[in-house]
Amino acid sequence: MKIAGIIKSSFIDYPGSAAVVIFLGGCNFSCGYCHNPEIVRGSEAEIEVPDFLEFLKKRRRFVDAVCISGGEPTLYGEELYELIARIRELGYRIKLDTNGTAPVLLRRLLEAGMVEHAAMDVKGPWEKYAQIVREGGAMVSRVQESLALLMEQAEASEGAFTFELRTTVCRELLDAADIENMARQLSGASCWYLQTFKRQGALLDEAGAYSAYSPEEMERLRAAAEAAGTVKSVRVR
Predict the structure, then answer these.
(1) Could you tell me which of 72, 130, 125, 59 has the C-alpha nearest to residue 100?
(2) What is the DSSP letter of 25?
(3) In whole angstroms, what is the distance from residue 170 CA to residue 208 CA?
């Protein structure tokens, strides 16, 4: 395993904490609107894990959490588990960003108390998943299993573990009916972010046409989601 990128200090990635953010290369999805094509393809500059751990030892006075993002970190399996264990030995809390396609590994991490916060991308309603992520429909059942695991862990932990769901909203892929459908499918989740699509440099699919809803339209989508489902909190960002 090598780390594809790093943000040395972030105040927005881990709720209520200053954090280091690392990106692990590679992904098993091919979402056209992805704005990290270099990381997804594994072509970013690489940082050796021992060098990163040495860096963390020097940052303990300034940050107290590490966010592990991608790409898709869970592709690394046992290597990811070992990396998290070594980071925790240094006294850091962990946030894991994931697309939910590795429920077996996720269960292991949660049951071992290795992750305090998780953020899972939910790409769209289950019926449109294969279209959006450009992979086979078998992925949906894994994402659904991961969602159930997150909900169970949050309920059982009495606040020791929290999670959020995130959906990037592109006009060409999701409409109001899709958002309302998702709200029903995500019933029981505590926090769901509708993320306005933003073009930030190159996209994974440069041939595709992707555009954002206006702030007013995003607020109407949020209100529709809130009215249609039982997600405790629906927010726009």
Answers:
(1) 72
(2) -
(3) 11
Q: How far apart are CA 116 and CA 65, in angstroms?
A: 10
Alpha helix (H) ranges present in 102-160? 103-111, 129-133, 138-157
- Beta-strand relationship, 2-14 and 117-121: unpaired
Starting at the edge strand that comes first in sequence, how are the strands of the sheet with 93-98 ordered?
A: 47-48, 2-14, 17-24, 65-69, 93-98, 117-121, 162-169, 192-196, 234-236
Number of H helices, E strands in the chain: 8, 9
Q: Tell me the β-bridge partners of 120.
A: 98, 165
pLDDT at 152 over 70: yes
Which residues fall within 8 angstroms of residue 39, CB to CB, at 6 or more apart?
4, 5, 23, 24, 25, 27, 70, 71
Q: Is the pLDDT of residue 44 over 80?
A: no
Return the amino acid letter for 38. E
233 torsion bin: left (phi>0), alpha (psi -120 to 50), beta (else) = beta
pTM score, whole prediction: 0.93
Residues 65 and 213: their CA atoms lie apart, in Å, by 33
Query: Cβ(234)–Cβ(184) under 8 Å?
Result: no
pLDDT at 205 over 80: no
Give the pair of three-digit tokens for residue 111.
């049951």
Pairing label, strands 192-196, 93-98: unpaired
